[in-house]
Amino acid sequence: MKPHRRRILIRSAAAAPVDAAAPQPRVAVNFDRPKVSELTMGMRVWGINGVGFDMLGASPLETVKLGTHEVWEFRNEGRAGMVRMAMPHSMHVRGLQFRVIGRSVASRFARGHDKVKAGLVDKGWKDTVLVMPGERVRILLGFADYPGPFLYHCHMLEHGDSGLMRNHLVMATNAVERDNPIAKIAGFAKRQRITGTPTTMQLVAAVAIEGVCSNGASRLPS
């Protein structure tokens, strides 16, 4: 049997009194089952959940819907015999800002964590969060503005260059398209089978056609 690893709760915004400025984790579609990103190392190469960077790829776990909120959890626990390699990671998510809603630390890392925890500032909007050795950090993200692929990665350059970087893919839905011009253009491009980066004229046509045809049935003139 694996030994039980005791964890120490540092803080949780979810447990704070509710007010207009506080993050509201219950808006997330996965409030009680956060998506876990384990910060890993194997053969001296960093990864996320044991996988390195893929320029064009995003796993189902890394695919989200435009117009939703999710809870993610970064884990920096030094698993698989890499305790001595555990080090801080500055995790950055592109394309949005998020709220930190909780931290906990494994008991075996608590002494070192006590020396720095006073300097961890989690209030307010973030695009980067420091994940210390032994920590699990939960964040609340809202995918409100743009569809498409976006990076999330460690901002320490040698870590990102070594594989601690992945894509997350924001997918537009038809319901969201009707109210979001960027999502509308992306949906139009998909229906028109436009690959690569659309030209300016294609985008202008997309705005004109999709603006008057909500069912998306119109086509660019040949």
Outline, from the CA principal axes? globular
Distance between the termini: 66 Å
Percent of residues in helices: 10-25%
Q: Uncertain runs with pLDDT below 50, 5 residues or more? A: 13-19, 210-222
Total helical elements: 5
Q: What is the radius of gyration?
A: 20 Å
Beta content comes to 25-35%
In the sheet with the most strands, the strands line up as: 1-7-9-5-2-3
Quick check: average pLDDT?
78
**What structural class do helix, strand and pairing data support?**
alpha+beta
Overview features:
17% helix, disordered C terminus, 6-stranded mixed β-sheet, Immunoglobulin-like, alpha+beta, 222 residues, 5 helices
Detailed description of the structure:
With 222 residues, this protein is an alpha+beta fold. The chain folds into 2 domains: 7-171, Cupredoxins -  blue copper proteins (Immunoglobulin-like, Sandwich); 175-212, no CATH class. It is built from 5 helices and 11 strands; from the N terminus they run βββββββαβββαβααα. It has a 6-stranded mixed sheet, with no helix packed on it. The radius of gyration is 20 Å and the shape is globular. The model is unreliable at 13-19 and 210-222 (pLDDT under 50).
SSE layout:
Layout: E1 7-12, E2 35-42, E3 45-48, E4 63-65, E5 68-76, E6 89-93, E7 98-106, H1 110-114, E8 128-131, E9 135-143, E10 148-154, H2 157-161, E11 165-171, H3 174-177, H4 181-191, H5 200-212
Parallel strand pairs: 2-5, 4-11
Antiparallel strand pairs: 1-7, 2-3, 5-9, 6-8, 6-10, 7-9, 10-11
